[in-house]
Amino acid sequence: MLSKDLSISLTADRFPLVRDIGKNQTDGTYTHHDRILDFDVFLFVTKGKMQVIEEGTEYFVGEMEYLFLKKGCHHWGRPLTLPGTTWYWIHFNSVVDEHVSYSDHSPMPELDYYFPDQYQYRFVMPKHGTPAFHQTLANRLQRLLEDYGKPRENGMTLISVQVYQLFLELRQAELSRIAKKTAGKPDTVAGRVMEYLTQRTEEDFDSKRLSDYVNLNYSYLSATFKKITGQSIIEAHTKLRMNKAIHLMRSTPLNVSEISERLGYRNPYYFSRVFKKVFGEPPSTYMSHFYKT
């Protein structure tokens, strides 16, 4: 029997909607409620230790540790939570557009400008751990709790946006921690490929030159890059070239034909077709959006 997926995913185009926020402190030994919820839960323990079981997986959440519990899963506990344990909790619903096909890959950092699918991806939250900013997290949660209790216009929306930012920072801190642990290791295949591509935005793609640069077979490079980034090498190179095109539109007086030539496109009409395919409109129209002197 396959184990149930306990991970919680958020999307880049919808912030989670907060249902309620609270703070608890146990007087005696505490047992987590036996329940199945229709919303996700974020817990952060500031004192003591909490015990909770999710679909048979047992967690002990210590001081300055967090835990995400997934909606639709069976949660329960034993009388193992220590007396005096104090924790904050946030109940929230993640919102997904059912008409969007979300990617499991976030846009690569080198792709700076907006693309039509820029927000159509999901990301997994770290399940359990100690955030790098744990010393300030309790204060932030206390301010959220205080704001939650104040009636104000757009109050819950403001709370939800702040919680979303907190979750994003939590995830980024965990990614940074992992990156530090792997520092000093050889560059990943995707990183080497992107290094090559970013240096060659003004020329056509050449698979042989890339293979020679990375010293790996192109078929292997292509499959590995696609697996890691969710897009092909040629797609990434094209987007990088279109990024460069937008940079030239913003920072130079060059016209479409001159930009096309600068980027190594022999035919400005072909460049315009590629640009429209990526951004949904021709470069001449895109240029009209900018404020230029």
TrEMBL record:
SUPFAM superfamilies per the UniProt record, alphabetical: Homeodomain-like, Regulatory protein AraC
Keyword Electron transport part of the UniProt annotation: no
Molecular function GO terms recorded: DNA-binding transcription factor activity; sequence-specific DNA binding
Keywords: DNA-binding, Transcription, Transcription regulation
Residues of the HTH araC/xylS-type domain: 191-289
Listed name of the protein: Helix-turn-helix transcriptional regulator
